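Researcher: Please predict.
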Amino acid sequence: MSRPFAVLSARRNSSCNNWVLRGSFCRCSDRQMAVHIFDPVYATPADWPEGDEITQRYIATMGEVGVTALIGNVRAQWMAVRSGNRLFPVTINNGETGDSYVSLPHSAYILYGREELGLAGSPLLTRLLSPVMAFAGVALRGAGINRVVQLDNWLLSTCLHGDWQGTDLPTIRTALCQRYPRHVIGLRSLDSWSCPGLLAAVRGDGWTLLPSRQIWVTDDPAAQLAQRHNLKEDARILRRSGLTVETGASLDDRDARRIASLYEQLYLAKHSRLNPWFTAAFVQMSHHSGLIAYHLARDADGCIQAFAGTMARGDMLTCPILGYATDRPRREGLYRIAALLITQAAARQDVRLHGSAGAGTFKRGRGATGIIEYCALYTRHLGAVQHAAIATFARGLDRWLVPQLTARGL
Protein backbone atom coordinates (compact mmCIF):
# COMPACT_ATOMS: atom_id res chain seq x y z
CA MET A 1 0.00 0.00 0.00
CA SER A 2 1.35 3.39 -0.92
CA ARG A 3 2.07 5.87 1.85
CA PRO A 4 0.50 9.28 1.37
CA PHE A 5 2.71 12.22 0.57
CA ALA A 6 2.02 15.86 1.27
CA VAL A 7 1.67 18.52 -1.38
CA LEU A 8 1.95 21.96 0.14
CA SER A 9 1.74 25.10 -1.96
CA ALA A 10 2.63 28.57 -0.82
CA ARG A 11 2.54 32.03 -2.25
CA ARG A 12 3.92 35.18 -0.73
CA ASN A 13 1.85 38.32 -0.30
CA SER A 14 3.98 41.16 -1.62
CA SER A 15 2.04 43.70 0.45
CA CYS A 16 2.84 42.11 3.82
CA ASN A 17 5.20 39.70 5.53
CA ASN A 18 2.50 37.41 6.92
CA TRP A 19 1.41 34.02 5.65
CA VAL A 20 -2.29 33.18 5.59
CA LEU A 21 -2.81 29.44 5.71
CA ARG A 22 -5.93 27.85 4.31
CA GLY A 23 -5.69 24.11 4.67
CA SER A 24 -2.44 23.12 2.96
CA PHE A 25 -2.08 26.34 1.01
CA CYS A 26 -0.70 29.81 1.57
CA ARG A 27 -2.73 32.34 -0.41
CA CYS A 28 -1.56 35.64 -1.82
CA SER A 29 -2.10 37.94 -4.74
CA ASP A 30 1.10 37.44 -6.70
CA ARG A 31 2.34 34.43 -8.63
CA GLN A 32 2.40 31.02 -7.03
CA MET A 33 5.53 29.05 -6.24
CA ALA A 34 4.57 25.49 -5.32
CA VAL A 35 6.41 23.55 -2.62
CA HIS A 36 5.96 19.82 -2.94
CA ILE A 37 7.02 17.51 -0.08
CA PHE A 38 7.08 13.84 -1.03
CA ASP A 39 8.45 10.42 -0.21
CA PRO A 40 10.84 9.44 -3.03
CA VAL A 41 10.06 5.74 -2.56
CA TYR A 42 6.54 6.31 -3.83
CA ALA A 43 7.25 9.15 -6.23
CA THR A 44 5.74 9.27 -9.70
CA PRO A 45 7.44 10.86 -12.73
CA ALA A 46 5.31 13.96 -12.18
CA ASP A 47 6.87 14.49 -8.74
CA TRP A 48 10.37 15.04 -10.08
CA PRO A 49 11.43 18.30 -11.75
CA GLU A 50 13.13 18.23 -15.12
CA GLY A 51 16.92 18.24 -15.12
CA ASP A 52 19.36 17.64 -12.25
CA GLU A 53 19.35 13.89 -12.77
CA ILE A 54 22.21 13.35 -10.32
CA THR A 55 20.23 14.81 -7.42
CA GLN A 56 17.18 12.79 -8.43
CA ARG A 57 19.14 9.52 -8.61
CA TYR A 58 20.81 10.17 -5.24
CA ILE A 59 17.53 10.99 -3.50
CA ALA A 60 15.64 8.11 -5.13
CA THR A 61 18.30 5.49 -4.39
CA MET A 62 18.80 6.64 -0.80
CA GLY A 63 15.07 6.24 -0.29
CA GLU A 64 14.87 2.84 -1.97
CA VAL A 65 17.89 1.26 -0.26
CA GLY A 66 17.37 2.94 3.12
CA VAL A 67 19.44 5.53 4.92
CA THR A 68 20.89 3.21 7.58
CA ALA A 69 21.91 0.59 5.01
CA LEU A 70 24.05 3.25 3.31
CA ILE A 71 25.20 5.32 6.30
CA GLY A 72 25.36 3.01 9.27
CA ASN A 73 25.08 5.55 12.09
CA VAL A 74 22.17 7.60 10.75
CA ARG A 75 18.53 6.84 11.58
CA ALA A 76 16.43 9.38 9.76
CA GLN A 77 13.36 9.50 7.60
CA TRP A 78 14.35 10.47 4.07
CA MET A 79 12.12 12.79 2.08
CA ALA A 80 12.34 15.21 -0.82
CA VAL A 81 11.20 18.78 -1.35
CA ARG A 82 10.56 20.30 -4.74
CA SER A 83 10.40 24.08 -5.05
CA GLY A 84 9.73 25.07 -8.63
CA ASN A 85 12.37 23.21 -10.63
CA ARG A 86 14.74 22.84 -7.69
CA LEU A 87 15.01 19.58 -5.73
CA PHE A 88 16.23 19.15 -2.14
CA PRO A 89 16.94 16.08 0.01
CA VAL A 90 15.35 16.36 3.46
CA THR A 91 15.98 14.38 6.65
CA ILE A 92 13.51 14.07 9.52
CA ASN A 93 14.57 13.02 13.01
CA ASN A 94 12.21 12.56 15.95
CA GLY A 95 14.48 12.89 18.96
CA GLU A 96 17.01 10.11 18.39
CA THR A 97 20.37 10.52 20.13
CA GLY A 98 23.92 9.41 19.45
CA ASP A 99 23.79 9.26 15.66
CA SER A 100 26.21 11.05 13.34
CA TYR A 101 26.48 14.81 13.42
CA VAL A 102 25.28 14.98 9.81
CA SER A 103 21.75 14.27 11.05
CA LEU A 104 21.61 15.36 14.70
CA PRO A 105 22.51 18.86 15.97
CA HIS A 106 23.05 17.54 19.52
CA SER A 107 25.73 15.22 18.18
CA ALA A 108 27.35 18.05 16.21
CA TYR A 109 27.51 20.53 19.08
CA ILE A 110 27.55 18.51 22.31
CA LEU A 111 28.81 14.97 21.69
CA TYR A 112 31.39 15.97 19.08
CA GLY A 113 32.32 18.99 21.19
CA ARG A 114 33.06 16.75 24.17
CA GLU A 115 35.38 14.64 22.04
CA GLU A 116 37.19 17.71 20.72
CA LEU A 117 37.54 19.03 24.26
CA GLY A 118 39.15 15.78 25.32
CA LEU A 119 41.66 16.10 22.49
CA ALA A 120 42.52 19.72 23.29
CA GLY A 121 45.22 18.66 25.74
CA SER A 122 44.20 21.17 28.41
CA PRO A 123 43.00 19.60 31.68
CA LEU A 124 42.05 23.05 33.00
CA LEU A 125 39.91 23.82 29.95
CA THR A 126 38.29 20.39 30.23
CA ARG A 127 37.42 20.94 33.91
CA LEU A 128 36.00 24.38 33.19
CA LEU A 129 33.94 23.53 30.13
CA SER A 130 32.72 20.00 30.83
CA PRO A 131 29.97 21.14 33.26
CA VAL A 132 28.96 23.91 30.85
CA MET A 133 28.64 21.44 27.98
CA ALA A 134 26.72 19.00 30.16
CA PHE A 135 24.22 21.73 31.09
CA ALA A 136 23.96 22.87 27.46
CA GLY A 137 23.34 19.30 26.35
CA VAL A 138 20.46 18.87 28.79
CA ALA A 139 18.98 22.23 27.78
CA LEU A 140 19.21 21.51 24.05
CA ARG A 141 17.67 18.07 24.39
CA GLY A 142 14.92 19.62 26.48
CA ALA A 143 14.40 22.15 23.69
CA GLY A 144 13.93 19.28 21.22
CA ILE A 145 16.94 20.13 19.08
CA ASN A 146 17.07 16.54 17.77
CA ARG A 147 13.44 16.68 16.71
CA VAL A 148 14.54 18.32 13.52
CA VAL A 149 13.76 18.55 9.81
CA GLN A 150 16.90 19.44 7.85
CA LEU A 151 16.51 20.96 4.40
CA ASP A 152 19.04 20.26 1.61
CA ASN A 153 20.76 17.74 3.87
CA TRP A 154 22.85 15.36 1.77
CA LEU A 155 24.09 13.58 4.92
CA LEU A 156 27.65 14.56 4.04
CA SER A 157 30.15 16.53 6.11
CA THR A 158 29.64 19.46 3.73
CA CYS A 159 26.36 20.12 1.93
CA LEU A 160 27.11 22.28 -1.09
CA HIS A 161 24.05 24.36 -1.98
CA GLY A 162 25.11 25.15 -5.55
CA ASP A 163 23.55 28.26 -7.05
CA TRP A 164 20.57 28.32 -4.66
CA GLN A 165 20.16 31.92 -3.50
CA GLY A 166 17.30 31.26 -1.08
CA THR A 167 14.70 33.51 -2.70
CA ASP A 168 12.15 30.75 -2.10
CA LEU A 169 13.38 29.97 1.43
CA PRO A 170 10.42 31.61 3.25
CA THR A 171 8.03 29.61 1.06
CA ILE A 172 9.79 26.32 1.75
CA ARG A 173 10.17 27.09 5.43
CA THR A 174 6.46 27.87 5.75
CA ALA A 175 5.54 24.57 4.09
CA LEU A 176 7.89 22.61 6.36
CA CYS A 177 6.61 24.34 9.50
CA GLN A 178 3.05 23.48 8.48
CA ARG A 179 3.91 19.86 7.72
CA TYR A 180 6.12 19.44 10.83
CA PRO A 181 4.77 21.95 13.40
CA ARG A 182 6.64 20.43 16.38
CA HIS A 183 10.03 20.11 14.68
CA VAL A 184 12.97 22.46 14.53
CA ILE A 185 13.77 23.31 10.89
CA GLY A 186 17.48 23.13 10.05
CA LEU A 187 19.86 24.06 7.25
CA ARG A 188 23.53 23.04 7.44
CA SER A 189 26.75 24.25 5.76
CA LEU A 190 26.16 27.99 5.45
CA ASP A 191 28.99 30.46 4.98
CA SER A 192 29.81 33.78 3.34
CA TRP A 193 32.16 32.21 0.79
CA SER A 194 30.17 29.36 -0.78
CA CYS A 195 26.61 30.68 -0.40
CA PRO A 196 26.48 34.39 0.54
CA GLY A 197 23.04 34.88 -1.01
CA LEU A 198 21.55 31.94 0.86
CA LEU A 199 23.17 33.07 4.11
CA ALA A 200 21.62 36.52 3.67
CA ALA A 201 18.22 34.93 2.95
CA VAL A 202 18.46 32.87 6.14
CA ARG A 203 19.25 35.96 8.19
CA GLY A 204 16.41 37.87 6.58
CA ASP A 205 13.94 35.08 7.31
CA GLY A 206 14.58 35.06 11.05
CA TRP A 207 16.59 31.86 11.48
CA THR A 208 19.03 31.41 14.37
CA LEU A 209 22.64 30.98 13.20
CA LEU A 210 24.89 28.65 15.20
CA PRO A 211 28.63 28.71 14.38
CA SER A 212 29.66 25.14 13.65
CA ARG A 213 33.29 25.01 12.46
CA GLN A 214 36.02 26.77 10.52
CA ILE A 215 36.27 25.61 6.92
CA TRP A 216 39.24 26.02 4.59
CA VAL A 217 38.59 27.36 1.11
CA THR A 218 40.65 28.06 -2.01
CA ASP A 219 39.56 30.41 -4.78
CA ASP A 220 42.05 29.27 -7.45
CA PRO A 221 43.35 25.73 -6.91
CA ALA A 222 45.23 25.70 -10.23
CA ALA A 223 47.23 28.78 -9.24
CA GLN A 224 48.06 27.24 -5.87
CA LEU A 225 49.28 24.05 -7.56
CA ALA A 226 51.62 26.13 -9.71
CA GLN A 227 52.89 28.37 -6.91
CA ARG A 228 52.86 26.57 -3.56
CA HIS A 229 55.99 24.71 -2.51
CA ASN A 230 54.00 22.29 -0.33
CA LEU A 231 51.77 21.27 -3.23
CA LYS A 232 54.77 20.82 -5.51
CA GLU A 233 56.33 18.62 -2.85
CA ASP A 234 53.08 16.62 -2.57
CA ALA A 235 53.21 16.04 -6.34
CA ARG A 236 56.84 14.92 -6.06
CA ILE A 237 55.87 12.41 -3.34
CA LEU A 238 53.14 11.04 -5.60
CA ARG A 239 55.51 10.68 -8.57
CA ARG A 240 58.04 8.77 -6.47
CA SER A 241 55.46 6.61 -4.72
CA GLY A 242 55.02 4.11 -7.53
CA LEU A 243 51.25 4.50 -7.19
CA THR A 244 49.03 4.78 -10.24
CA VAL A 245 46.27 7.37 -10.13
CA GLU A 246 42.87 6.58 -11.63
CA THR A 247 40.24 9.28 -12.01
CA GLY A 248 36.62 8.58 -12.85
CA ALA A 249 37.21 4.85 -13.18
CA SER A 250 34.49 2.29 -12.58
CA LEU A 251 34.40 0.68 -9.15
CA ASP A 252 33.84 -3.00 -8.55
CA ASP A 253 32.61 -4.45 -5.25
CA ARG A 254 36.16 -5.07 -4.04
CA ASP A 255 37.08 -1.43 -4.68
CA ALA A 256 33.98 -0.23 -2.83
CA ARG A 257 34.78 -2.38 0.20
CA ARG A 258 38.38 -1.14 0.23
CA ILE A 259 37.31 2.51 -0.02
CA ALA A 260 34.80 2.09 2.81
CA SER A 261 37.45 0.35 4.93
CA LEU A 262 40.09 3.05 4.37
CA TYR A 263 37.58 5.77 5.18
CA GLU A 264 36.49 3.96 8.35
CA GLN A 265 40.11 3.49 9.49
CA LEU A 266 40.77 7.21 9.20
CA TYR A 267 37.55 9.01 10.11
CA LEU A 268 35.82 6.62 12.50
CA ALA A 269 38.54 4.53 14.15
CA LYS A 270 41.15 7.30 14.31
CA HIS A 271 38.93 10.38 14.73
CA SER A 272 35.30 10.00 15.81
CA ARG A 273 32.45 7.54 15.56
CA LEU A 274 30.21 10.56 15.09
CA ASN A 275 31.53 11.00 11.57
CA PRO A 276 29.15 9.48 9.02
CA TRP A 277 29.75 5.75 8.64
CA PHE A 278 29.73 5.31 4.88
CA THR A 279 29.27 1.68 3.89
CA ALA A 280 30.50 -0.06 0.75
CA ALA A 281 26.92 0.17 -0.50
CA PHE A 282 27.08 3.96 -0.11
CA VAL A 283 30.32 4.08 -2.09
CA GLN A 284 28.72 2.18 -4.96
CA MET A 285 25.52 4.21 -4.81
CA SER A 286 27.28 7.59 -4.73
CA HIS A 287 29.49 6.49 -7.63
CA HIS A 288 26.70 5.12 -9.82
CA SER A 289 24.44 8.12 -9.14
CA GLY A 290 27.20 10.40 -10.40
CA LEU A 291 27.25 12.43 -7.18
CA ILE A 292 30.79 11.51 -6.15
CA ALA A 293 33.80 10.97 -8.41
CA TYR A 294 36.41 8.66 -6.92
CA HIS A 295 40.10 9.35 -7.51
CA LEU A 296 42.21 6.31 -6.63
CA ALA A 297 45.92 5.74 -5.99
CA ARG A 298 46.70 2.05 -6.54
CA ASP A 299 49.90 0.14 -5.86
CA ALA A 300 51.53 -2.30 -8.27
CA ASP A 301 49.17 -5.08 -7.15
CA GLY A 302 46.10 -2.95 -7.88
CA CYS A 303 45.29 -2.34 -4.21
CA ILE A 304 43.96 1.12 -3.35
CA GLN A 305 46.33 2.81 -0.90
CA ALA A 306 44.76 6.28 -0.94
CA PHE A 307 41.67 7.86 -2.44
CA ALA A 308 39.57 11.01 -2.55
CA GLY A 309 35.88 11.18 -3.41
CA THR A 310 34.92 14.60 -4.76
CA MET A 311 31.54 16.23 -5.30
CA ALA A 312 31.01 19.34 -7.44
CA ARG A 313 27.98 21.62 -7.46
CA GLY A 314 27.93 24.93 -9.27
CA ASP A 315 31.41 26.45 -9.27
CA MET A 316 32.60 24.56 -6.18
CA LEU A 317 34.07 21.19 -5.35
CA THR A 318 34.43 19.47 -2.00
CA CYS A 319 35.58 16.07 -0.72
CA PRO A 320 33.00 14.32 1.47
CA ILE A 321 34.90 11.02 1.64
CA LEU A 322 38.65 10.45 1.81
CA GLY A 323 40.96 7.78 3.11
CA TYR A 324 44.34 6.13 3.02
CA ALA A 325 46.07 3.11 4.49
CA THR A 326 46.76 4.35 8.01
CA ASP A 327 48.84 1.25 8.77
CA ARG A 328 51.47 2.26 6.20
CA PRO A 329 54.57 4.24 7.29
CA ARG A 330 54.01 7.99 7.53
CA ARG A 331 57.03 8.64 5.32
CA GLU A 332 55.05 7.30 2.35
CA GLY A 333 52.96 10.47 2.48
CA LEU A 334 49.64 8.81 1.72
CA TYR A 335 47.58 11.55 3.39
CA ARG A 336 49.43 14.16 1.34
CA ILE A 337 48.71 12.14 -1.80
CA ALA A 338 45.01 11.80 -0.98
CA ALA A 339 44.74 15.55 -0.29
CA LEU A 340 46.60 16.35 -3.51
CA LEU A 341 44.03 14.37 -5.51
CA ILE A 342 41.35 16.80 -4.27
CA THR A 343 43.24 19.92 -5.35
CA GLN A 344 44.10 18.39 -8.71
CA ALA A 345 40.44 17.52 -9.31
CA ALA A 346 39.37 21.09 -8.54
CA ALA A 347 42.07 22.50 -10.83
CA ARG A 348 41.06 20.22 -13.71
CA GLN A 349 37.43 21.30 -13.39
CA ASP A 350 38.41 24.98 -12.94
CA VAL A 351 36.25 25.35 -9.83
CA ARG A 352 36.77 26.72 -6.33
CA LEU A 353 37.74 24.29 -3.59
CA HIS A 354 35.76 23.89 -0.37
CA GLY A 355 38.28 22.08 1.80
CA SER A 356 35.87 21.36 4.67
CA ALA A 357 37.20 21.53 8.24
CA GLY A 358 40.21 20.16 10.08
CA ALA A 359 43.97 20.08 9.40
CA GLY A 360 44.06 23.87 9.38
CA THR A 361 47.85 24.24 9.39
CA PHE A 362 48.18 21.71 6.56
CA LYS A 363 45.56 23.45 4.43
CA ARG A 364 46.82 26.98 5.11
CA GLY A 365 50.21 25.86 3.88
CA ARG A 366 48.56 24.95 0.58
CA GLY A 367 46.83 28.28 0.05
CA ALA A 368 43.52 27.83 1.88
CA THR A 369 41.76 30.57 3.86
CA GLY A 370 39.66 30.02 6.97
CA ILE A 371 35.94 30.92 6.96
CA ILE A 372 33.39 30.39 9.76
CA GLU A 373 30.55 28.05 8.81
CA TYR A 374 27.08 28.09 10.37
CA CYS A 375 24.11 25.84 10.88
CA ALA A 376 20.75 27.65 10.76
CA LEU A 377 17.82 26.59 12.91
CA TYR A 378 14.29 27.98 12.61
CA THR A 379 12.35 27.83 15.88
CA ARG A 380 9.93 30.78 15.80
CA HIS A 381 6.94 28.47 15.30
CA LEU A 382 7.81 26.57 18.50
CA GLY A 383 7.35 27.52 22.13
CA ALA A 384 9.10 30.55 23.60
CA VAL A 385 11.22 28.38 25.92
CA GLN A 386 12.49 26.22 23.05
CA HIS A 387 13.30 29.26 20.94
CA ALA A 388 15.07 31.00 23.83
CA ALA A 389 17.17 27.95 24.73
CA ILE A 390 18.52 27.56 21.20
CA ALA A 391 19.02 31.31 20.72
CA THR A 392 20.95 31.54 24.01
CA PHE A 393 23.17 28.63 22.99
CA ALA A 394 23.86 30.33 19.64
CA ARG A 395 24.92 33.54 21.38
CA GLY A 396 27.27 31.56 23.60
CA LEU A 397 28.88 29.93 20.57
CA ASP A 398 29.33 33.32 18.92
CA ARG A 399 31.11 34.67 21.98
CA TRP A 400 33.29 31.66 22.73
CA LEU A 401 33.58 29.23 19.81
CA VAL A 402 34.26 31.70 17.00
CA PRO A 403 37.21 33.39 18.77
CA GLN A 404 38.65 29.97 19.63
CA LEU A 405 38.38 28.73 16.05
CA THR A 406 39.94 31.90 14.69
CA ALA A 407 42.74 32.15 17.24
CA ARG A 408 43.72 28.48 17.11
CA GLY A 409 43.24 28.05 13.36
CA LEU A 410 41.14 24.95 13.98
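Model: Residues 217-370 form a domain with the Aminopeptidase fold (CATH 3.40.630.30).
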